[in-house]
Design goal:
By secondary structure, the protein is of the alpha/beta class. It has 3 domains: 5-79, Arc Repressor Mutant, subunit A, CATH 1.10.10.10; 94-163 and 269-292, D-Maltodextrin-Binding Protein, domain 2 (3-Layer(aba) Sandwich), CATH 3.40.190.10; 164-268, D-Maltodextrin-Binding Protein, domain 2 (3-Layer(aba) Sandwich). 44% of the residues lie in helices and 23% in strands. The chain is built from 12 helices and 12 strands. The chain has helices at residues 5-17, 20-27, 31-45, 61-88, 101-106, 108-118, 131-139, 185-188, 201-212, 226-234, 244-247, 282-292, and strands at residues 50-53, 56-59, 94-99, 123-128, 145-149, 158-172, 182-183, 192-195, 218-222, 240-243, 256-261, 267-274. The strands form 3 sheets. Strands 3, 4, 5, 6, 7, 10, 11 and 12 form an 8-stranded mixed β-sheet that branches. This is Transcriptional regulator. InterPro entries: HTH-type_LysR_regulators (IPR050950), LysR_HTH_N (IPR000847), LysR_subst-bd (IPR005119), WH-like_DNA-bd_sf (IPR036388), WH_DNA-bd_sf (IPR036390). Keywords: DNA-binding, Transcription, Transcription regulation. Belongs to the LysR transcriptional regulatory family. GO terms for molecular function: DNA binding; DNA-binding transcription factor activity.
């Protein structure tokens, strides 16, 4: 079937106004013209799209389905127009990235800088989110590319390897474990934790590992910032697990010590996710190649 974009826009106006007269006024059309367009669309679909009442109209199940897809189509067309406008203005694309803190703090700045050196006119919107929110943003189209840890369920996204980081145990100098250089999870599980946000990938990893041992963790404090976690640990409020690279700047001249976590899962993979590689823009595909290393020169 071929659908007329103007008719679909009229249907969206009717769905939002729930009134043919107001929808006609909004679209600068006669009410009869709106009714004719909706009737033609219903004939094309083979089912009523609106239930008509004296007080206005409501969508039928078929109408709700059509409005859902019409809105998606409208969003895609808007994205296409923005992308083409970028090209017309001399800009070669626009990429929206949502990523976890570990990726943004450790890897993305240098990786994006390398990509921009090759494609200097591309624009980026980068937002820091917990893993589950990153995946959701890619799923609902709010982000073109997401970066999250392997422990975060990908919900059907196409995923690709990005980087690997290492989790360490961070303790204050006066902590009972501070004399050690390496610890196991069984050793630290006995102590109070300064933990991350409950939706974060680190929290998921910790609680999963504790559950495997039939244990639960004692979270003294939960806080979303790694920098604030370091401050809480230094104040003696518990120990924390975090990426080594993020803890490193806080070790010198402070009362903190990083302990190697002697667990295979402490070395975790970070992943990149898109809704569909086939449907991704050329700009996003080029960025994926660059971030995965395929786009780098030997």
């Amino acid at each position: 079937m071929k659908y007329d974009l103007t008719t679909l826009a009229i249907l969206l106006a009717v769905a939002e106004e729930k009134n043919l007269t107001r929808a006609a006024r909004r679209r600068h059309l006669a009410v009869s013209a709106v009714s004719k367009r909706i009737k033609e669309l219903e004939d094309q679909v083979g089912a009523p799209l609106l239930a008509r009442y004296s007080r206005g109209v409501e969508l039928t199940p078929a109408g709700q389905s059509m409005v859902f897809y019409a809105r998606q189509l409208q969003a895609v067309l808007g994205q296409m127009e923005n992308e083409l406008a970028d090209y017309g203005g001399g800009i070669k694309g626009h990429v929206r990235i949502h990523a976890i803190t570990s990726a943004i703090a450790q890897f993305l700045p240098r990786d994006i800088a390398r990509f921009v050196a090759a494609y200097p006119l591309i624009r980026f919107d980068i937002e820091e989110r917990v893993g589950s929110a990153v995946v959701q943003a890619v799923c609902d189209g709010s982000a073109d590319l997401g970066i999250f840890a392997q422990q975060t369920p990908a919900q059907g996204l196409e995923v690709f390897p990005y980087r690997r980081d290492e989790l360490i145990a961070l303790v204050g100098r006066g902590h009972a474990l501070a004399r050690k250089s390496r610890v196991t999870f069984d050793e630290i599980i006995e102590h109070e934790f300064v933990g991350p946000h409950v939706d974060s990938s680190v929290h998921t990893l910790l609680t999963t590992e504790a559950a495997r041992r039939g244990r639960s963790l004692a979270f003294k404090i939960r806080i979303s910032s790694f920098e604030s976690m370091c401050q809480m640990v230094e104040a003696g409020l518990g120990l924390a697990l975090m990426p080594r690279a993020l803890a490193q700047p806080h070790l010198k001249g402070t009362g903190l010590k990083a302990l190697t976590l002697n667990e295979p899962w402490a070395r975790r993979d970070l992943l990149m996710g898109v809704r569909s590689l086939r449907d991704a823009t050329p700009t996003v595909k080029a960025l994926l190649d660059s971030l995965s290393g395929r786009g780098q020169a030997d």
